[in-house]
Amino acid sequence: MTPEREQEIAANLERAEQSIQAAKDLAAGGYHDFAASRAYYAFHTMLASEAVLARDWDQPEEDAAWVDL
To answer: Can you tell me whether residue 56 is helix, strand or coil?
Structure first.
């Protein structure tokens, strides 16, 4: 995995953690709909990051699938 990809994943996970904290703060303030939105975003950001981390980066045939992303 390239250092740039690692930095991107780390940044995405940091945003997910911030969204979780924002969801907690919003829920504590009674903004449950907005809290659910932040929690949903955080959940899917973490799922996407886990999928990227689980990818076998030594398989060149998979690289073509990522070209257009």
So the answer is: coil
